[in-house]
């Protein structure tokens, strides 16, 4: 390219548009600068030497020879050569600095993108595995391996394998050292959090600036510590909710157990105080004690079941059930809460038998009915409507309360959530709807709510499970 450029300038200046030596010198200098900025210093230096020789041969007298008659022309010729070399050197340096600035900007952009990716990593899978995957993707690495000192696990990502780095990673993480192997294009560095080394990082890539490598290591350290802090916060929140659940259950048990215990105590006291009472009266007292004992046993079963629901996984044991009987059993068991209020049960066009976990579904219906009774005016009815087929069963519980604000509809199934508007007015734990929701989900169904002023309906949908039952 340097020969071609010099030849073109010489031909134009010598044959096409004859000009003086000064103009030709500026033309050669401009050509050298263009070559320096485009291809680099070596090409520009060759062009400078070639242009000097051609300049002397075609434009300095005696023309056609490499000799110079006037000593002043020697000064001019060497000044031209020195100027072109210096200019090409400066142009090449400016070009390299521009390229370095572009590379630095790209590195900064990648580090920024990586930092944002760390903040956006979800908790659906292993955080370190996602972290190393994002690193490979953003920095276009062939492979990367992360060794976590706390869990002693290796996390890999990339299209190639980094074999034989496990021992080096462990040593790097243990001693906080870094080293590279240019022949294998491998770099291993310790990931530090303050003075503590918490991980080791191996990268399979071409030479990477130390500043970028340390930036990556610092971001990895921040990401791992952030994940650890989030896990710790989740554990603390789980422990807090578990403790709150236990406290709430104890309070609820103490409150609900008082009624059957009081009735049992009254019946047994009456029997002991009047051993000579008539058989009819004694039978009535024994019947009351027996019924309330059954009620107390049901309350204990429900409390135990609610405590078990604190576990993430709920075991469902479906059995063939009569939906109408299940609903009426729940209504009968809540007679003390219902008292003289009107509860309508509409259960037409129901399949004779459906398979579900009776105990869990009873508990879910009870929570929904208890919620409806709390928030519906005493003089208004609560309606339980059940319908469906063997493929799908729907149970709806409707109350005539004030309704649920739209902004709270997405939160009412959260554990311990209660509307600020009624938190101090109506007693409750904020567990009932959450329990019902988890029970329905465990069955593979769904629990939704529609609400407007004067009417709120909870829709409990259960899929047909008959085909899963043994013949």
What is the number of domains? 4
Helical content band? 55-70%
The coarse overall form would be elongated
Kindly identify the CATH topology of the largest domain. Answer: Heat Shock Protein 90
Which residue ranges are poorly predicted, with pLDDT under 50 across at least 5 consecutive positions?
466-471
Number of helices: 12
Any guess at the CATH architecture of the largest domain? 2-Layer Sandwich
Specify the CATH homologous superfamily of the largest domain: Histidine kinase-like ATPase, C-terminal domain
Largest sheet: 5 strands, antiparallel
The SSE order reads: HHHHHEEHEEEHHEHHEEHEEHEE
Mean pLDDT: 77
Radius of gyration over alpha carbons? 42 Å
Major sheet strand order: 2-1-5-4-3
CATH class of the largest domain: Alpha Beta
What amount of the residues lies in strands? 15-25%
Alpha-beta classification: alpha+beta
Q: How far is the N terminus from the C terminus?
A: 88 Å
* Count of β-strands: 12
């Amino acid at each position: 390219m340097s020969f071609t450029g010099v030849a073109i300038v010489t031909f134009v200046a010598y044959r096409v548009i004859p000009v003086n030596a000064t103009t030709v010198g500026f033309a050669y200098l401009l050509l050298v600068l263009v070559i320096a900025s485009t291809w680099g210093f070596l090409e520009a230096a060759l062009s400078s030497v070639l242009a000097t020789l051609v300049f002397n041969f075609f434009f300095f007298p005696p023309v056609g020879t490499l000799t110079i008659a006037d000593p002043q022309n020697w000064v001019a010729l060497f000044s031209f050569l020195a100027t072109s070399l210096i200019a090409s050197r400066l142009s090449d340096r400016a070009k390299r600095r521009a390229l370095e600035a572009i590379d630095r900007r790209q590195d900064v952009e990648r580090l920024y993108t990586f930092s944002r990716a760390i903040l956006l990593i979800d908790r659906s899978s292993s955080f370190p595995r996602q972290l190393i995957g994002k690193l490979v993707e953003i920095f276009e690495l062939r492979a990367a391996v992360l060794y976590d000192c706390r869990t002693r696990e290796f996390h890999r990502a990339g299209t190639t394998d980094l074999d034989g780095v496990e021992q080096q990673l462990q040593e790097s993480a243990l001693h906080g050292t870094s080293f590279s192997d240019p022949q294998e294009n491998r770099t291993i560095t310790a990931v530090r959090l303050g003075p503590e080394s918490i991980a080791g990082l191996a990268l399979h890539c071409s030479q990477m600036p130390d500043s970028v490598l340390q930036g990556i290591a610092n971001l990895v350290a921040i990401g791992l510590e952030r994940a650890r802090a989030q896990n710790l916060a989740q554990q603390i929140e789980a422990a807090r909710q578990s403790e709150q659940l236990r406290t709430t259950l104890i309070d609820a048990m103490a409150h609900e157990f008082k009624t059957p215990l009081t009735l049992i105590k009254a019946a047994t006291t009456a029997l002991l105080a009047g051993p000579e009472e008539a058989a009819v009266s004694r039978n009535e007292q024994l019947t009351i004690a027996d019924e309330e004992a059954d009620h107390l046993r049901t309350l204990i079963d429900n409390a135990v079941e609610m405590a078990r629901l604190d576990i993430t996984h709920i075991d469902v044991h479906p059995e063939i059930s009569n939906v109408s009987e299940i609903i009426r059993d729940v209504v009968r068991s809540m007679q003390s809460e219902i008292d003289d209020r009107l509860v309508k049960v509409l259960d037409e066009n129901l399949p004779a038998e459906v398979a579900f976990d009776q105990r869990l579904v009873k508990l879910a219906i009870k929570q929904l009915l208890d919620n409806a009774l709390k928030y519906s005016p005493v003089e208004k009815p609560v309606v339980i409507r059940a319908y469906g087929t063997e493929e799908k069963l729907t149970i709806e519980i409707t109350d005539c309360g004030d309704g649920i604000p739209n902004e709270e509809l997405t939160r009412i199934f959260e554990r311990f959530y209660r509307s600020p508007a009624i938190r101090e007015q109506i007693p409750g734990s904020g567990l009932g709807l959450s329990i019902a929701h988890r029970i329905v989900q465990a069955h593979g169904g769904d629990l939704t709510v529609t609400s407007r002023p004067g009417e709120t309906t909870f829709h409990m949908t259960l899929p047909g499970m008959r085909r899963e039952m043994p013949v």
